[in-house]
Design the sequence.
């Protein structure tokens, strides 16, 4: 694929348009409601990949990246569903039954919130977009104009900071 960025973007866009039906079918692994989002995630990932290095087999890359994006979305949804099933009914702590546990939980929550507030602005922003808004790394990168690798680094540092504060 040519290294010219504008030409590469045009070629990627054309490939996605030409193969829309096929890509939608691949992405439907994520579920019908997630298929379009999986295709969009793949599009962003491919644009970033082309900016980093030359891509020779764009058609194969598109299929593979869409398939991986769909699988990742399916796994995330399944994990959320499994977690919700496992914790059904455990959401509310009866503070009258165990006041010590409720106090410890409240204190821990205060520490976590204080730690999040003390994070550098960009790290906090990335962390909240991912954990609260449930945005993917490529979505975050695109929204705030940084690389996916930078998003990964911010998330790693945020998780380390939260872990250190919890010790």
Sequence:
């Amino acid at each position: 694929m040519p290294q010219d960025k504008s030409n590469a973007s045009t070629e990627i866009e054309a490939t996605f348009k030409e193969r829309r039906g096929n890509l939608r079918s691949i992405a439907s692994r994520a579920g019908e409601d997630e298929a379009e989002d999986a295709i969009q995630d793949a599009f962003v990932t491919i644009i970033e990949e082309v900016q980093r290095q030359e891509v020779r087999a764009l058609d194969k890359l598109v299929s593979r990246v869409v398939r991986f994006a769909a699988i990742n979305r399916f796994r995330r949804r399944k994990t959320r569903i499994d977690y919700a099933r496992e914790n059904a009914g455990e959401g509310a702590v009866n503070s009258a039954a165990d006041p010590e546990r409720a106090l410890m939980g409240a204190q821990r929550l205060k520490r976590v919130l204080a730690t999040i507030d003390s994070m550098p602005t960009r790290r906090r922003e990335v962390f909240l977009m991912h954990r609260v808004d449930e945005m993917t790394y490529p979505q975050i990168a695109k929204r705030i104009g940084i690389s996916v690798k930078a998003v990964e680094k911010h998330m790693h540092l945020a998780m380390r900071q939260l872990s250190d504060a919890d010790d």
